[in-house]
Amino acid sequence: MKIQSTVTSFLVDNIDTDQIIPARFLKTISKDGLGDQLFYDWRYNADGSQKPEFVLNTEKAKKSQVLVSGDNFGCGSSREHAPWALTQYGFQAIISTSFADIFKQNSLKNRLLPVVFPKDAHLALLNALSANPDLQVTIDVEAQTLTWPGGPSVSFPIDAFAKHCLLAGVDEIGYVLQQEAAIAAYEAQRFSTLNTLA
Amino acid sequence: MPSKPRTIIEKVWDNHIVAEREGAPSLLFIDLHLVHEVTSPQAFSGLRARGMKVRRPDLTFATVDHSTPTTPRSLPIVDPVAATQVAQLEKNAQEFGIPYFGFQNRMQGIVHVIGPENGLTQPGMTVVCGDSHTATHGAFGALAFGIGTSEVEMVLASQCLLQRKSKTYEVRVTGSLKNGVTAKDIILALCARIGIGGGTGCVFEYTGSAIRALSMEERMTVCNMSIEAGARAGLVAPDDATFQYLAGRKYAPQGAAWDEAVARWKQLPTDEGATYDHSITIDADTLEPMITFGTNPGMGMSISGAVPDPASIGDATERDSLRKALQYMALEPGKPLAGQKIDVVFIGSCTNSRMSDLRAAASVLKGRKVNSAVRVMVVPGSQEIKRQAEAEGLDQVFRDSGAEWREAGCSMCIAMNGDQLTPGQYSVSTSNRNFEGRQGKGGRTFLASPLTAAASAVTGVVTDVRTML
Predict the structure, then answer these.
(1) DSSP codes, chain A
(2) Cα(A31)–Cα(A18) distance, rounded to whole angstroms?
(3) Which of A106, A175, B137, B419 is the most buried (most CB within 10 A)?
(4) Contact between B380 and B394 (Cβ < 8 Å)
(5) Within a domain: B3
(6) What are the residues whose beta carbons fall under 8 Å from the beta carbon of A72, sequence distance 6 or more?
(7) Is the Cβ–Cβ distance between B133 and B224 less than 8 Å?
């Protein structure tokens, strides 16, 4: 699995999921139609027109599959609508120096790759991007590397199981359900304190 | 040979391992799965597409809180999208046989309020919910954390989760809180000290004399905002206060089962000699009432402090973040926040909507009037709390002061239900997040305790409650 793309640079620290998709859009009962609501309050004027200067409204961003952002991306609420909106917009990978725990797990379950970069590599990529905004990067999930022309090959960590699921297309719920015998055995010896007869 | 000393975090983890396979995360059994209307519909759709049932409806409980109006219950839900979402959960609960505290149910309330209130949350449990404030239940010594909708589906289907073990982080709070300083100020101080990402990858255990001295409701306030310091979960080891709170509650064990449970729960506290991956100590004696000035909960300070100056920050991205935050908040660096004019006070949310919070706010508002320029909303965490507060006459104190007394729900903490700030308005809020637009597009939030909120309601400006005690 390889991602080759230009990079959209959005260098803000602590981007929270309320910015990624504001709560008023969470009243939906489906997963669809969230791409247009991505970063809604930063992306649109009060009358619903796009703010042309906002990075996600540029033609370049619309064609890009990789976003590079500041530290602690995806903090805040557990809403999986955040990775749904990001992937529906077109992103397949986010590069940051760190990700919030729940966002990271939610992303991996939606084939959105959280790429954790060391600070120096993050800076090197940003410098390369300011020298050449049309820089193409290649993310090799199997090798766990990100490269760009004239740059280093940066290794990044991925949980081994999550990587296996991404590459082999494993349905995690199906995987868990195969362990029915272990679950049943656990339940049989489990001590329950919940007084459900009340 | 004696076994290695373990923290309570490790004990609860070990007790719930169903299976461990090479290269895969642990398969963890979930004792209690709480469900609400916002993060569950797509999970139920997934289950339906698989043709599956909920494996353990007896360990699954649902309620509506986020999208629900806090206007009188006799009125319909006017927002058709919200009404559809609420109706969908009712339908899902019926179809899958899940106990459901619906909009008109006497036990309806914020999911993290009604779990403990009904004795569903107990020591040593694993508790999950599609909501990042699930850490609230950690107050009972439960390992409780928020999950995404895919994980909600996994728990509905299997009652299990695939999880990697988190690191352990001791948050020791020594000494004792001074008058006017509360549990909310402890957790806001932690967020300010270690930042919004400080606990990423960790589970907090709150220890120390100041934590031991807290009531169960206050412990819930502290644990609730663990996620605001980056930790997915935070807990307090159970003690007599925990057992006293739980005894006799609806879903708590009764009779001989109670004695057996308490004996087990007493085994949970961290062993002498156990070590943590990280630790921090906060001296409660030096804490003052806290307030946030920025656009994440880590941007907080003592109420006597001054708004920090971006020019004093070395790191460029950090400096830009603070500058951006102050621009959004329209605040001047170097100036104190006390005296800042406000438009709205919100007292409520899963952080601060319980009886002790309402009593604290009422103690300030009793015999006083809220400032005529300020809208004050008091939103109890559950219908049960609403009844209890009314029985004590707190509703009358609020109404007499000029505050609104509303129905139970998340309300203006997340502004999904019509309760919201208008662009540019300032609020002092007892909720948990001050992100841009969190309380309504363009709204500006100062997070604080119920005491600080009530004091500010009276004066119409950000106020140090200690001047009014």
Answers:
(1) -EEEEEEEEE--SS-BHHHHS-GGGGG-SSS-S-GGGTTHHHHB-TTS-B-TTSGGGSHHHHH--EEEE-SSBTBS---THHHHHHHHHT--EEEES-B-HHHHHHHHTTT-EEEE--HHHHHHHHHHHHH-TT-EEEEETTTTEEE-TTS-EEE----HHHHHHHHHT--HHHHHHTTHHHHHHHHHH------TT-
(2) 17
(3) B137
(4) no
(5) no
(6) A13, A14, A15, A96, A97, A98, A99, A100, B196, B197, B200, B230
(7) yes
Q: Is residue B52 part of a domain?
A: yes
Range of the structural domain that residue B175 is part of: 167-286
Q: Are strands B290-292 and B278-283 parallel, antiparallel or unpaired?
A: unpaired
**Domain that includes residue A182, residue range:** 159-193
Give the span between the Cα atoms of B94 and B64, in whole angstroms. Answer: 14
CB contact under 8 A, B158 and A176: yes
- For chain B, the domain total comes to 3
- Taking chain B (469 residues) in runs of 10, the rounded mean pLDDT of each run is 87 98 96 98 98 97 97 94 97 98 96 98 98 98 98 98 97 98 98 97 98 98 98 98 97 95 98 98 98 98 97 89 96 97 98 98 98 98 98 98 98 96 98 98 98 98 97
**Would an 8 Å CB–CB cutoff place A126 in contact with chain B?**
no
Q: How far apart are CA B17 and CA B161, in angstroms?
A: 10
- The answer to whether B106 touches B384, Cβ cutoff 8 Å, is yes
**Residue to substitute from A21, A194, A196, interface B, most B β-carbons within 10 A:** A194
Q: What is d(CA B210, CA B175) in angstroms, rounded to the nearest whole number?
A: 6
Domain co-membership, B123 together with B138: yes
Same domain? For B274 and B298 the reply is no
Under DSSP, the state recorded for B269 is S
Q: Detail the DSSP E strand segments found in B166-273.
A: 167-174, 202-207, 233-235
Compute the distance between CA of residue B340 and CA of residue B468 in angstroms, rounded to an integer: 17
Nearest Cα of chain B lies from the Cα of A169 at a distance, in angstroms, of 15
ipTM above 0.95, yes or no: yes
Whole-number Å distance between alpha carbons of B95 and A10: 44
Question: Domain containing B416 — which CATH number?
Answer: 3.30.499.10
A-B contacts (CB, under 8 Å): 202
- Mark whether B222 and B114 lie in a shared domain: no
Q: How many residues does chain A have?
A: 198
Joined tokens for residue B133: 């404030």
Cβ separation A176–B157 shorter than 8 A:
yes
Of B25, B158, B317, nearest to A13 by CB-CB distance is: B317
Distances (CA, A) of B207 to A135, B140, B177, B279: 50, 13, 14, 10
Contacts of the segment B99-102: beta carbons below 8 A, 24+ positions apart: B99/B57, B99/B60, B99/B61, B99/B62, B100/B61, B100/B62, B100/B63, B101/B61, B101/B62, B101/B63, B101/B64, B102/B63, B102/B64
DSSP character at residue B174 = E
The one-character DSSP state at B84 is H
